Amino acid sequence: MSRKTEAGLEKICSLNPWDSNCPTHDYQASHLLRVGDRVFFSTAQRLTDREGMCNVYPMLYEKHDGGEWQLVWSDENAYQMDAGHLLYAGNDRLLMTLNPPKARYPKDQRTFLAPCTPVVCVFDISGGVNLIEVREIPWDKPDYPFKSHAYRSSCVDTVNGDLFFTNIHYPEEKHVYSLTDTNLRPIHAGALEFPERGCYHNIAMKNGETYLFAMQDIIEPNEEWLEYNRRTSDFDYVFRTVYLNYSLDITREELRPSVVVCSTADTCGTVDNLDCRYDAGGDMLFMAHERNISVDYMRDRFFPGVPMVSELCLYRFSGGEMKERTVMDRAEEGGEWNLSYNGFIHTAANGELYLVWARVAPAENGLSRMAFFIKKADDPRRPPYKILERTGTFSYRVFGNKVNHGAQPSDLVEIFWTEGSLDCMYASFDLNALE
Q1: Which of 364, 420, 368 is nearest to 389 (CA)?
Q2: Which residues of the chain have pLDDT under 50?
Q3: Dist. CA 380–CA 162, nearest whole Å
Q4: Residue 98 and which of 87, 132, 379, 426 are 20 to 30 A apart at CA?
């Protein structure tokens, strides 16, 4: 393959900049979703006159092929913590999951983990975009004390259209799931069990078979590392292990006990749980970014002289069992590029899978360079191909159009990221431009 053209670039919208108490975009929100010749984008606008974490309201944008992005729905009264996840299971019904607070709060009251009711907004998109109903997600127990948080996810069964939702309830910090049919009628619900808190779920389902990858999210367990880190950073949590919960058929059996997929716990490293996807043969591919040591100041104190290494890794599973691990890209300290924690898996129209990810590098005047690369999942030895490069400041993660959320396989690779003060950027790249 060779690159014949660069990805097309557009700005969707600009948002009010957030601070440390306004995350706006959660880790696994499906912000970008294509349905036919239309692509939808969900985001959240910060309310500048309100403090605390529940200070954004959801928005939905749409563009038709060849057209411009348009704001088609928003609710300034539905202030919450983050953007909505998008799902499409057919029948001209676009779904958005939200965690709206149960009560209104004075504008000057700071809110953190406010009690909420997880819901699904159902939009009819047959002749425009019209909100037709808001449904509560049917959990196993109606008295779960849910509170607004980014620890939630969802997916669509790629065969039968069933919907799978996860969320976290307090004070036990237990994760729960709900399986419904396409029309949100309950099928099965239960709890997610991990050896320790497992968050930021990546989920894929195919005819009931379910893979759920969860990233460890706990306060630093090594007392020496914790004490030293607190001298430099006020962030105490670590993400060093990815767990897999699996079910052969979630309609008939619970998710099996967690198994470790990968871990950098022994070297003070970090793992980023990026994406998962079924390939054409039915295997599950899981994509992760693994750093042997999380940050340079921890390396300098506890692992002096050890070079920092990042790897983009692809894990293959069948029947819930890991078959192989392949390093798809690697960056060593001192090289031109570093691997970023951004990336996703794209499904082409013929079923072939591609990895799309970002590399970052320092640039002049305090700006950075970020470039997007692509490579076939089954061709690890071939070098990646750069499809777009940007220079500037980059705010958050890169997202793609997800089959796991109901998007059809396509030769059009679509990417969303944020840059500058807070510009929501979109790029599309035609796989037919590679040969």
Answers
A1: 368
A2: 1-2, 21-25
A3: 33
A4: 426
pLDDT at 415: 92
Asked whether the beta carbons of 25 and 418 are under 8 A apart, the reply is yes
Q: To which residue do tokens 């957030």 refer?
A: 18
Predicted confidence at residue 20, as pLDDT, reads 52
Residue 140: which residues within 8 A CB-CB, separation 6 or more? Answer: 176, 178, 189, 190, 191
Do residues 269 and 292 make contact, with C-beta atoms less than 8 angstroms apart?
yes
CA dist list (Å): 185 to 59, 136, 162, 163? 26, 11, 10, 10
Taken as a whole, the chain contains a residue count of 435
Report d(CA 78, CA 204) in Å as an integer: 29
- What is the SS3 assignment for 300? helix
Nearest of 175, 170, 210, 167 to residue 194 by alpha carbon: 175
Angle at 11 between CA 7 and CA 14, to 5 degrees: 150
Structure tokens at 356: 């799309």
d(CA 146, CA 117): 7
Domains and CATH numbers, the chain: 8-433 (2.130.10.120)
Rounded to two decimals, the pTM is: 0.94
DSSP secondary structure code for residue 142 in this structure: T
Pairing of β 423-430 and β 38-46: unpaired
Whether residue 167 contacts residue 137, with contact meaning beta carbons closer than 8 Å, is answered with: yes
pLDDT in tens, 70-113: 999 998 877 777 888 999 999 999 999 998 888 777 777 777 77
Q: How far is CA 132 from CA 73, 88, 135, 297, in A?
A: 12, 15, 10, 52
Amino acid identity of 52? Answer: G
**Distance separating alpha carbons of residues 33 and 209, to the nearest angstrom:** 23
The DSSP result for 360-390, as a single string, is: EEE-GGG-EEEEEEEEETT-TTSPPEEEEEE
Peptide bond into 171 cis (omega under 30): yes
Distances (CA, A) of 96 to 119, 162, 238: 8, 15, 29
Residue 157: both structure tokens together: 């069964």
| Burial environment of residue 193 by CB neighbours within 10 A (0 to 12, 13 to 18, 19 or more) | middle
